[in-house]
Fold these 2 entries.
Entry 1:
Amino acid sequence: MERFAYRIIDANFNRAREACRVIEDFCRFALNNAALTVELKQFRHQLCTVISTLDSTMLLAARNTTADVGTGQQAQGQMVRADMNDSLTAACKRLPEALRVLAETLKPDEPDAARSVEQLRYRFYTLEKDIVLSWSAAQKFSRVRLYVIITNDRPCEILSLVNSCIEGGADCIQLRAKGMPDEKLFATTQEMVRVCRDAGVLSIVNDRVDIAVAAGADGAHLGQDDLPVTHARRIALSPLIIGKSTHNMDQLKNAIDEAPTYVSLGPVFSTGTKPDVEPVGLEYVSQATAYLKDKGIGHVAIGGITAENVTQVIQAGAKAVAVCSVITQVPNVTGSCGNLKRKIEGLLEGDRV
Ligand code: TZP
Ligand code: MG
C-alpha cells in the first residue's frame, strides 16, 4: 500500500474512533442507555479489530501532523455547536464519512478489511436512527411530572377537560377514548393535539398508533395486549413517544427489550377506573424505578393516585405520576390539577438535573 494510503487510513481511523467516543458518551451520560452504550463500545472495538489487521508501524510512520496541509483549515461553523444535540449530529455525520474514506482507501490492497468497514458503516446507519429517535422522544418526555389521562368518549367534554388540565399545569395529556368511531376520534385527537401543542403540553393517544400518527400527536400508549412497541415504531413518521403499560417486573423487563420511551407502573393503588385489576403497590414502584435507572427509559406511576397519597408514590422513587379520576371526575378540574402539580413539584424539588 502507498504511504499516502496509510496516512489516509491513520487519519480516518482516528476520526472514526473519536466520533464513536462522542456518540458512546452521549448514549452513556445523556441517554443513560446501557444497551446503546454497549453497542457503541462493541462497534468501536470491531473497527479497531479490522484496522489491527494492517501494519500498525506503517500507519504510525505515515502520520505527519505538522506537515498536514489540512490542519488549521477550518470550515465555517466547524467550531460552533449550539448544544450537545449539535455535537451528536456532527459526530453521527463524521463517523460514516470516515468509514467511507477508510473503505475506499482499503479496497485496492485490503479488500477484506474494506468489506468489514463497509458492513460497519451500514450498521451505523441503523444505530444512528435508534439513537436520534430515542433521544428526541426521551428528551420530550423527560420533563413530564403530571400526566393526565382523559377517559371519555364525548368530544365536547374531552376538549373542555383538555383545556382545564392545561390551565392546571398538566405536562402531558392522554386521550383514552375506547368507544368512539374512528372519524370522531381522529377529529377530536387533531383538536387536542392543536391545543396541547399551542400550550407546550404533550399529547398521547391510547391504543391507536394510527390515529396518533395521522393526527400528529406526540405519542401513543400501548397496553400489554396492544400492538408491540417495535411494530408501532414502524408506523411512526417522526420521533414518536411510545409508552407501554407494565404491572410487574417480568413485564417491565420484557418492555425494556422493546425500547419504549416510557413505561407505566401500576395500578399502584386500587382504582375505580380499572376495578378488575389487582393493585401492585408501592413496592413495584420502588423496584421498577431502581431497575430503570440505567435504561434511558422514562416512567409514570399510575392507578388510584391522589393528592393525599402522592407523597408515598414520589418517596417510592417515581419522578412522574399519571392520574385520571382524581382530576377528570371532580368539579374543579383546573384547581385539582394545579394542586397535584404543585405537590409533585414540591416533592421533587432539588431532584431536577
Ligand atoms: N392503567 C393502570 S391504572 C389506570 C390505567 C389506565 C387508571 C388510572 O386511573 P386513576 O383514576 O387515576 O386510578
Ligand atoms: Mg390498550
Entry 2:
Amino acid sequence: MKPSFFDLTYDELKALLTEKGFSPFGATQIFDWVYKKYVYDPKEWSNVSNKAKDFFAENYDFSLLKVVWHGLSKDGTRKFLVKMTDGQTVETVAIPARDRLTLCVSSQVGCAVGCTFCHTATQGLKRHLKASEVVLQYITIQNWLIQNVSQEEKLTNIVYMGQGEPLHNFENMKKATLIFMSEKGMGLGQRRITLSTSGLVPAIEKMALDFPPVNIALSLHSARNNVRTELMPINKVYDLERLFKAIKMIPLKAHRRITYEYLLIDGMNDGSEDVEALANLLNSKESKINLIPFNEFPGSKYKRPSEQKIMWFLDQMIKRGFTCTIRTTKGSDILAACGQLKSEFDKLNLWNKDSEPKVIPSIASSVLQNQVRP
Ligand code: SAH
Ligand code: SF4
C-alpha cells in the first residue's frame, strides 16, 4: 500500500524532492495544488515537472476519506462519519457560528482515558489516527461541503475535540497541526486551532516545549480531586496539583489563553462547594471557563442539571469575576454526544461490506428517531 501524501509536512516534502533529485522549490507548487486548489491528481499539476508528477502519481496515495454517513441538525451542525482505509470509522463535526465554520476532528479511534461520562470511552482505544487521517478529515469535509453545499462553504477553524485524546497521539497530532498551519498550504493561523486535552501531564510538559502554538482547552470538569478522579481516572495519576504545575509551563503569550472546559453533571460537580473550589483554583484574569451541560446518551449514568441550575452556576462564576460561557449543545438531534454516532453505526454494521453509503438514509432516520430527546 502506498503512503498517503497527506502525511508529509512541507519540510518533509522539500526533503523528499531533494532526495529524489527534484528541485525542492517544487514543494511550494505541490502544496499549492493540493491544499489551495484542491487538485489531488498529480497529472493535473501543470507547473510541476513531468518526472515529479509521475513520481507522485506512482508512489503516493492521494485518496480522501469516505463519508459513510452525514446528518444535518436543525441548528446547522453537520455530523459526518468517515471511513479510513482499514475500515475503521471516526466522527467529525462541522459547527457553524456567526462568522466561522469550525470542524471538530477526532484524534484516535476510541480513547484509552476512560472518563466515566464519555461515550467514546466505552469503545476503549482501537488505534491512534495517522497525521494524514487527521488532515484528511478537514480536506474530505471541505471538499464535501463545496460539492454538496456551496463553493462558499469554507471551514475556518479546527478543534481537536472529537473522539480520542489528542495528546496521547502526540507526534501525529503535532504533524497534522504543522500541516494545517503551513503557510504554503492551508495556512490556518494559531488562533484558529484549539487542542482539547483531559490533562495528560507528561504530554502537556512536552507540548510546552515542542508543539506549534495553538489554543488550549483543558477538560477540567471538577476543581476537587476526589470528584475529578471519579469522573476522569487520569486524575488518579495526574492530580490537580501536578496538572496545574504542568499548565504553568505553557508559554501563555504564544498560546494566548487557556479555556477550561467544565462539564456540568447533576448532583456531581454543580454545587456551591464546586463553585468555591473552581473559583479558588483558577485565576479569573487568565482563565476562560466554558460550561458544558452534560449530554446524556443511552446507558449514561449521569444526568444533565436543570436549566435553572446551569444558569445559577454560570451566575456564580460571573459574580466572581470570571469570563464564563455556556457551550450550547450543538446538533443534539443528530446524536450529539462524543462517540455516539460511531457506536450506533458499528452496532448496525453498515459499512464493512460495501463501499457506497446506499442504505444510510433509512437506517439513519431510525437511528435518529431513537436518539432525539423528548
Ligand atoms: N479527549 C479530549 C478531547 C475530546 S473530548 C478531552 O477530553 O478534552 C472533547 C470534549 O467533549 C471534552 O471536554 C469532553 O469532556 C466532552 N464530553 C465528553 N463526553 C461528553 C458528554 N457526554 N457530554 C458533554 N460533553 C462531553
Ligand atoms: Fe477520552 Fe476525552 Fe472522552 Fe475522556 S472525554 S474518554 S479523554 S475522548
